[in-house]
Every structure is written in structure tokens, then in C-alpha cells.
Design a protein that fits this description.
Family: Belongs to the methyltransferase superfamily. L-isoaspartyl/D-aspartyl protein methyltransferase family.
Subcellular location: Cytoplasm
Oligomer: single chain
Largest sheet: 7 strands, mixed
Strand content: 25-35%
CATH class of the largest domain: Alpha Beta
Shape: globular
Distance between the termini: 55 Å
CATH superfamily of the largest domain: Vaccinia Virus protein VP39
Helix content: 25-40%
Pfam family, one: PCMT
Number of helices: 10
CATH architecture of the largest domain: 3-Layer(aba) Sandwich
Strand order of the largest sheet: 7-6-5-8-10-11-12
Mean pLDDT: 90
InterPro entries: PCMT (IPR000682), SAM-dependent_MTases_sf (IPR029063)
Bound molecules: S-adenosylmethionine
Keywords: Cytoplasm, Methyltransferase, S-adenosyl-L-methionine, Transferase
Low-confidence stretches: 396-400
Length: 400
């Protein structure tokens, strides 16, 4: 453990109490892990974006505010590419807690973790499975794995085995696993995962729930007979799982139908209905501009509105982004409209989908802003694994 371990005990207590009060932590096992593992042993130099978008660089060695920043409920950016774009981060504690609670790992379990990152989540898993359990942790980035090796050795952790590997392939040599957790987003549930687990194993991962860029959700499922069962979707999204170390993170890896590069970064559009119409997508991207009349109230819970769009308009769901951010909405070959977190609607082509998007936001508000928890998820076999899709529960979401 680092020398800072004892200083951070009150901050760990504060963060753990907050995660419990907000319902992210629900029982003693993960509470104990969050109390026991010092996050600063794994994340010491990082960038924090505060809610207003301000960016602050911290270094525990030189900066008195760093320790407190480490114990905010925020994703801490730990690695950048040459252009300053994040390539690895320590996931926000609330999303970590939500996923770990659903993983339900027990002492003695063998766990496959995909996306080692800083090593902090591996240390939490190590604590939960105890000395009789085992955690194989994979990252595509060999520098992160070398760092994790070193940090776990220094912390005296003996049940974590960091490996360089592509999460899509799993790690057969360490299995069979009782649990798999992935902190990066595959486009399908990979077939090797289903083959490397014990019967009844639980998998928790961020996964694509539509062939649309950034259409991600957290999914929990059981594996029986080599297939995913009992799928439940939850809000949350991680960086995309990629089969090599990336240098450009600002452009989503999959399902982008048209993109344009500017000195500030890429502009792009992705829509379920645009994949077969690349020239229409390029035209819509060219014409996409903010409308003069933003929504009276923005969908603050963007994950919730994303869930609504994917469930009520799966064939028209779309996302579009630029260096300032991205929006979710609808696109067809003649029209596109997406709403950004500030309520601005970006629109191109005819007014058809602009009106439909406004109606959809109203209907979502009238329904009480349901989110992924109000949906059901299904898995469909594909060549690479299982594609996950979401739909309305029998009596849940209704809307135009
Ligand atoms: C959000 S970070 C993980 C955060 C980590 N759980 C922590 O506590 O710091 C996601 C990680 O997934 C890794 N990753 C992306 N694609 C991968 C792949 N195909 N296989 C393994 N790791 C991958 C990235 O290199 C990155 O370190």
C-alpha cells in the first residue's frame, strides 16, 4: 500500500457512505472493498473534468488537492493520446459500484476482468473474492498491464493476474470463470466469453444495444449452455472495446456513417437507417446545424432519453457529434434531428424528424422519464457472439 493509505481512510468512508446513500452500494461485501482499497494507490496522476466542464490536472506527489479529487465520484482520466484525448480512465465509483453489485462476486470465485486500466477495479475484485479466489485482468495496452503488475506486487496482492490481451477473445487459459466483468464496450457479447465460464456464471459488461455509435448500456446476464440468459439492461457506458491500442478516440469506432475532420476534432453522424445510404449521411452531416428553438427543458438524464429512443424508434435511432459533444435522436435518409445535453436540437433536411423528436421528448417527459431499467433486453446469435437489443416491457414504455 502507498504511504497515503491511512490519510485517505476518512475520504474512503465519505465516498462509501455516499455510494450507499445513493443506492449504488447495497451490501457489506462491496462496501468493505471500497473502504479497504485506497484509490490513490492506483490513480495518482490524472485529469478531472468537473460538472461545468472545467479540466484540472492533478498529481498526488505535488498537489494537496489531489487526494480529495481522487475521492470525488468522478471518472479520472489517467492516459491520453498525443493529441490529449483520453485513452484510459478510472471509471466513476458510482458506475463501478453499480456494475460490481450486479456482478455479485463471492469469496473463492474466479473472475475475468476486461479493461484493467488503472488497476483499482482489479483491487476491489481481489478484495471481494478473497485469498481463495482469483482475478485474471486483461488490457489491450501493455504499458497499463506492466504498471498493474508493479502496483499489485507493491500492494502485496497475490490473487490478481494481469495479462495483455484482447478482451474479445477472453482468456481461456485462466478459466473457467464464475464471473466476467468488462469495463469497455464490445459491439456484441463475444462468443469466447460464453465458452470460458462455469454453468450459471454471471457476466456484467457495457455493450452496444443498437448498431448506432454510442448506443451503449450496461448489461447483466447469466450464462447457461454457452448462451446468455436473463438479460437486464442498466444505464452506463464505457469506452469502446478495440482490438489494438487506439490513437483516435474522438471518433466512435463503429457504426459511423459519415465523418468530417476539423482542426478541433471530428464531426460525425450515425443512424440505424443511414448505414445503407452513405451519401445521404454525408449530406445530412454537412447540413446539421442547431435549430433556433431549443427544447423548453433539456433531457437532463441523457441515458434515460437514449433508452427511450432505442426502445420506441429502433429503426430511426441516431447519434451525431462534433468536438463540443454529441446528441441522440432520429435520422432517416432525408432528415436528421438530435438533441444535445443542453437542450439544443441539431437538425438537417426536412422537418419530419425534427417534429417527431420534439414529440418524443414530450412523451418521454409525460411518461416520467423512464430509463434502461424500464426496458427488457434480448440477445440474438451472430457469427461473433450475441447482439443485444432493448425493447419496451409489456407495460412500461409507451410513446410515439
Ligand atoms: C474505462 S478503462 C478501465 C478502468 C478500470 N476498470 C479502472 O478501474 O481503472 C477501459 C480500459 O479498457 C481497455 N480496453 C479497451 N479495449 C480493450 C480490449 N479489446 N481488450 C482489453 N482491454 C481493452 C482500455 O485500454 C482501458 O484501459
Amino acid at each position: 500500500m502507498t504511504p497515503t493509505t491511512h490519510h485517505s481512510a476518512p475520504l474512503r468512508r465519505q465516498l462509501t457512505d455516499k455510494l450507499s446513500a445513493d443506492g449504488f452500494l447495497r451490501g457489506s461485501r462491496w462496501e468493505e472493498a471500497f473502504l479497504a482499497v485506497p484509490r490513490e494507490a492506483f490513480v495518482s496522476r490524472f485529469v478531472l473534468h468537473d460538472p461545468s466542464g472545467e479540466r484540472a490536472e492533478h498529481d498526488l506527489a505535488t498537489d494537496g488537492a489531489a487526494l480529495e479529487a481522487i475521492y470525488t465520484n468522478a471518472s479520472l482520466i489517467t492516459r491520453h493520446d498525443a493529441g490529449g484525448t483520453p485513452t484510459s480512465s478510472s471509471t466513476s465509483p458510482s458506475l463501478m459500484a453499480l456494475m460490481l453489485e450486479r456482478l455479485d462476486a463471492h469469496p473463492g470465485h474466479r473472475v475475468l476482468e476486461i479493461g484493467t486500466g488503472s488497476g483499482y477495479s482489479s483491487a476491489l475484485l481481489s478484495h471481494a473474492v478473497g485469498p481463495s479466489g482469483h482475478v485474471v485482468t486483461l488490457d489491450i495496452d501493455d504499458a497499463l498491464i506492466a504498471r498493474a503488475h508493479d502496483l499489485h506486487r507493491r500492494a502485496g496482492t497475490t490473487n490478481v493476474d494481469p495479462r495483455v490481451g484482447d478482451g474479445y477473445q477472453g482468456w481461456a487459459a485462466g478459466g473457467p470463470y464464475d464471473r466476467i466483468i468488462a469495463w469497455a464496450t464490445p459491439h456484441v457479447l463475444p462468443r469466447p466469453w460464453m465458452e470460458q465460464v462455469t454453468p450459471g456464471a454471471v457476466v456484467v459488461t457495457s455493450v452496444k444495444v443498437a448498431e448506432v455509435a454510442l448506443a451503449n448500456a450496461v448489461l447483466r446476464c447469466h450464462v447457461t449452455g454457452g448462451q446468455p440468459w436473463l438479460l437486464s439492461p442498466h444505464p452506463g457506458s464505457m469506452i469502446e472495446m478495440h482490438a489494438r491500442v487506439l490513437t483516435e478516440f474522438r471518433l466512435p469506432i463503429r457504426y459511423v456513417d459519415a465523418a468530417r475532420h476539423t482542426p478541433q476534432g471530428p464531426c460525425w453522424i450515425s443512424g440505424a437507417a443511414l448505414h445503407a445510404h452513405p451519401s445521404a449521411a454525408a449530406e445530412l452531416l454537412r447540413d446539421l446545424t442547431p435549430t433556433m428553438t431549443p427544447l423548453p427543458s433539456a433531457p437532463e438524464n441523457r441515458d434515460g432519453f437514449k433508452a427511450w429512443v432505442l426502445a420506441t424508434h429502433p429503426d430511426q435511432a441516431a447519434t451525431a457529434g462534433d468536438p463540443e459533444g454529441w446528441g441522440i435522436g432520429l435520422a432517416g435518409h432525408d432528415s436528421a434531428a438530435v438533441v444535445r445535453p443542453d437542450g439544443t436540437i441539431h437538425h438537417a433536411g426536412s422537418d419530419r424528424l425534427l417534429h417527431q423528436l420534439r414529440r418524443s421528448v414530450r412523451a418521454w417527459n409525460d411518461a416520467g422519464q423512464p430509463g434502461f431499467e424500464a426496458l427488457t433486453a434480448h440477445a440474438h446469435p451472430t457469427a461473433e457472439g450475441w447482439a443485444v437489443r432493448v425493447s419496451r416491457r409489456q407495460q412500461g414504455l409507451t410513446g410515439p
